[in-house]
Amino acid sequence: MRTLNFVSGVIAALALTGCASTGGSDAAIGREATFASDNDCFLARLVSDWRPLDNRNLLVFTGRRNPYHVQLSMPSTRLRAQDTIAFTDRDGRICPYGGDAVVINGFMPDRITIASIRRLSEGELEEVYLQFGIRRPAIIETPEEPIE
């Protein structure tokens, strides 16, 4: 029974963490409100790669060429130092509503809800790289070995 109470307390604390507000300038608030209106989703099982853009934004790739710009509800100072992240969801789809979140591992894992997700075209992906001052990684195509 004591374990159940502890687990319930941890879950409540995580839920409250997702409700925290970070404040900001009027320009930043307006930009976030526009971005948050996008409701793109992706399947968790199709995530093939990800890349942090800053402490609150990341790119998630599904398959080889489907990039998504994911904005978290609050910044995490540990996001850029991570090699792996995880997603929590209710139905296999990662969406900016319903409490879906990014889990950043560590001694005390951070669970940060997703504020918005926007699927990017090739041109929009280039704009995001430029906006965050990040050099686009080179795509190295490896030839398939013939099947004998």
Features:
148 residues, alpha+beta, six-stranded antiparallel β-sheet, 8 strands, 28% strand
SSE layout and pairing:
Blueprint: H1 2-18, H2 26-36, E1 42-43, E2 47-52, E3 57-62, E4 66-72, E5 85-88, E6 93-94, E7 101-104, E8 110-119, H3 122-131
Antiparallel strand pairs: 1-6, 2-3, 3-4, 4-8, 5-7, 7-8
Explain the overall architecture.
This protein has helices at residues 2-18, 26-36, 122-131; strands spanning 42-43, 47-52, 57-62, 66-72, 85-88, 93-94, 101-104, 110-119. The chain has 148 residues and is an alpha+beta fold. The chain has one domain (2-131). The strands form 2 sheets. It has a 6-stranded antiparallel sheet. The longest helix has 17 residues, at 2-18. The chain is globular, with a radius of gyration of 17 Å.
Q: What are the low-pLDDT stretches, counting only 5+ consecutive residues below 50?
A: 1-37
**Integer tally of domains:** 1
Percent of residues in helices comes to: 25-40%
Alpha-beta content class:
alpha+beta
- Number of beta-strand segments: 8
Report the principal-axis shape. globular
What is the strand arrangement across the widest sheet?
A: 2-3-4-8-7-5
The H-and-E topology, N to C, reads as HHEEEEEEEEH
**How large is the count of helical segments?**
3
The fraction of residues assigned to DSSP E strands is 25-35%
Radius of gyration: 17 Å
Distance between the terminal alpha carbons, to the nearest Å? 60 Å
**Major beta-sheet overview:** 6 strands, antiparallel
| pLDDT averaged over residues | 77
In short:
This protein is an alpha+beta fold and 148 residues long. It has one domain (2-131). 26% of the residues lie in helices and 28% in strands.
